[in-house]
Amino acid sequence: MSDFPPSSDGRPDARPLYAQVESILNARIAAGEWQPGHALPSEPELAQELGVSHGTVRKALDALERRHLIERRQGKGTFVARQTSERARFHFFPIRDLQGRQVEPTSTALSLVTTPATEEERAAMHLPADALLHRVRRLRAKDGVPFMLDETSLPAAVFPDFTVPAGREPMEELYVVYQKRYGVTVVRSEELLSADGASPEVAAVLEMPVGAPVLIMERRTWDAGGRMVERRTSWLNTARHRYVSVME
Amino acid sequence: MSDFPPSSDGRPDARPLYAQVESILNARIAAGEWQPGHALPSEPELAQELGVSHGTVRKALDALERRHLIERRQGKGTFVARQTSERARFHFFPIRDLQGRQVEPTSTALSLVTTPATEEERAAMHLPADALLHRVRRLRAKDGVPFMLDETSLPAAVFPDFTVPAGREPMEELYVVYQKRYGVTVVRSEELLSADGASPEVAAVLEMPVGAPVLIMERRTWDAGGRMVERRTSWLNTARHRYVSVME
Fold this sequence. Notes:
Chains A, B: Residues 15-83 form the HTH gntR-type domain. The structure is a homodimer of 248-residue chains. Chain A is α+β, with helices and mostly antiparallel strands and 248 residues long.
């Protein structure tokens, strides 16, 4: 194992060996060295390159597969995963109907503006003093009835020349666009949820009374490199929809 | 692999071999044949008993470990996992403060009654016509300020002679009690969330105005055998707390 790369700061790395291998392969994906669809070297090749056992490589690949960063295809090999609309919807759109079933809403872009990040936003997203953010407002509807508004903020430096089709979609899920156009692979989102009365603006868009209870979601999203690439606030009218959360 | 057990209904099992091994081992845990803390046979012993390769056994154990059903201890072996207070709190109590930090509330049992299940409850939980449910109401507080009420319903047949200490805890997490006293290992919960105005009763207990927005969680919980062992409704005052949801 003499040729195993040292950690980047030169200090001994106390993590299990497979976790270190996972980090190295993760970094190649995050840096775009291995693009979505790229075929990874075989397990024996990786084991030899990194000077570790087959078992260690396999365990690292297992971990990357669980995080949806790679895909194993029977008899074909291992590939860097593409963000699919299905995964974007199923994993990152946790809205269900009253019976807990998946919802396929329409999505309408209401506005897209690019404005300076606030001090709070710069601190939270580790952005420089002159950073700009794109602000996308979208409205989701089901059977013509609007039920969810969201405002997404994206660093302009990470997403240059960002555009969304005006008006009603069939628009690709944003996370698919992030990867296809910008090489940004979303791997994790965290949301903090609360209940509050609808503001006049939210009430108007969601066609509900001002002050009526609305579910608010504050989301932060990270890419494969551990960088926060998005913040989002959503407002959900729960008259006909639910937010689903699974614990296991 | 001639000695590999056939599926219970005699039809060929189309799942990958490791998934079939996972089911077999899962069933031994769910049935209580292997109790919490029990040391599993070694990987070679399991491989021989089931007539599969070491790799297949390892993959099945990996899957059980990810589901928190077993624990591997370096140099000591593999054991059926015990439900710990820490896991019960961290995985199954998704309430955070406004900064997203873990909360350690006090919990007070308000009432425990045993009453017949409604028709809807019997259908949802697959219970017989004369089934009884224990109903536990608890109030969580932080620094003496109540912020969450919950009502938990448990089949009396699964949890005979169920009791909770009256008044303020230090009470063990319910999921630890389920396992220690009843051999019921909780592995999965699903919650549907909505926002609504506080009813007079909820408002009184949570010390908030009637009709003020409150976050409502409707939970269903399954044990290792795939049986629904609990239903729960919770009401959260989000003035000082948030519900956290992680997607990855």
